[in-house]
């Protein structure tokens, strides 16, 4: 039994051993299998890893993508008003590529922030530094932005607020400047310039004739199709029929907004200068100006042009007349001159009458003259020379004081502009001067800055604007060649007939 | 700028202390009960008034008129604080133009003859001579920066500025024959003031606005005839074989003597910034640039001149 028991035990032990062996071999198997699996998986990972590595170079190439994170860096917090003053170029260029510096548009989100803001008017906040009222309203009007490119007789500019100042005086219609035909060029160009303006551009047209100035509108108006039609209609009748030259009755509607502290008296501010004054009071960014002459007095032969100081001129005339009455020799000279002058005047008026009759017969427009003596020059009749004062000091006044110097005019312009623009500085000023075909400069007078073109050129140079000549149509020639003696005879025969 | 800040600070302090020393105010509540007290502080967010005697009292306890008084008191308090309501003046040049030219002078007589629309002229070029003519124009002005650092808006701010500048003028405007006399170079200086008043409807917390003074147009004009004299020998002199040269024009004297110049300059700006106080009066803060401006000029025109005439 015991043996049996022991044998049984042995059996059990053997079985246990077997079991252990079986169990340990199974464990080994499983370990082996796992090792194999791990190795296999590891090699796959390694393979995958190596495969990935080859693609890794491409990832490295994408490095710039990492730099984009810089955008997420904290932005310096600024009150939105300051931000608005420096809008991002991106937004601006998306809306208009014309002149990004002209349009400062706040970013999209800023409109929401703006909404609860009080509405500011005038120029006291920094965010209306450039008067952005237009951009804001333009945004809501859903139209193209207001920057228009303008080419006014070769003077070019881009702006949102444009003023055009045009001469309508008779000086635009002189024969040597091409008469009415040249003025039709002005009409055509205005049609084109105004017609091409964007509807969000604010514009105005200022017409002047001597001391009279007419504004299309008292303020700037958007260049809507209706406004364009109205302004062209408004200008349409000007200088088309030369029987009525200059501004039409009731058109002049401008009075200066304030008294300017300038070297020129307000009543002496005439012509383009008064037109410019009306324009600068509207605060446009760019002003185009078309003129025939510089001043309200332009000498016929030399083309010297200046603004007359009326009160000094009147005083000087009195003193000069008194001098010629007192001085015996001077009086004689002057009387002789006056007698010749009166005769010449009669001849000139007759010549003009005959010339105009001939033009009417030929279905032409009448001749527009500076003064009656122009026709004498046309017919090569010399006028007597004005006797000079022998001793100017005896007169007690100098003729130089009767006209404003170019410096005084420049100062006047400067004060007028700065009074209206202040911190905005100077607007762009462009000048166009109408000349006849083949216009020749008087070099001696121009060298002394006395002619219109020399003065305009100096002014434009000073204000960094542009100056162009507008060469008009060919000069209108007189139909009649007249002889002074023949005309005098005609006058005398007419007088005897009347008697 | 530092001096200016100091000055404005001093003015602010003075105004502030004036406010603190106010007499007792009689407050009434919505039921008509009254009490005499002095406001120490107003909490704009919580709408609670801190009174000297009574302590913390909610704003809506007071009558409508007193509520308005408290709000105006608070606004004034914030306005008078130089730390919480900042003003700065910066001088700037808004435009600068220059015109220079060498020109040949000329004499031109002019007469208005009867029967003519335009005057008749007789021109004589003085061709042997030249003059250098220069004109410098500068537009100067001041930037007035207001910044509200209070927690509450400040309303109806009146900003008045007086820009002081001086400008020289020639006694004789443009006169060739008078240039023989000393008067030709004489100038007279004129003091000028340009006033501007603007109202800022509201300045919200942390808002900054920039206003501008009027512009001072400064003129610097110069005629120089010394460097450009072209010395000419008269025929008679060359006949006599004399090397003498002359720069004298008959009737006009020595040409090179006829130079002249006039200038101008900006003196400074005096700015008054004011709001309505609780009693309905205007309370002003004054600042100047430069800080010494008040030594030279006064805000109100001095009415001495008519007395002298009498």
From TrEMBL, chain A:
Residue ranges crossing the lipid bilayer per the database entry: 21-47
Domain of life the protein comes from: Bacteria
Entry keywords, A to Z: Membrane, Transmembrane, Transmembrane helix
Name of protein: Uncharacterized protein
Organism: Pontiella sulfatireligans
UniProtKB/TrEMBL annotation, chain B:
Keywords of this entry: Signal
Biased composition (Polar residues): 286-295
Ranges of compositional bias, category Acidic residues: 232-247
Claim: Signal is one of the keywords in the record: yes
Domain of life: Bacteria
Signal peptide from the UniProt entry: 1-20
Keyword Signal in annotation: yes
Region span, Disordered: 227-265, 280-310
Protein name per its UniProtKB record: Uncharacterized protein
The organism of origin for this protein: Pontiella sulfatireligans
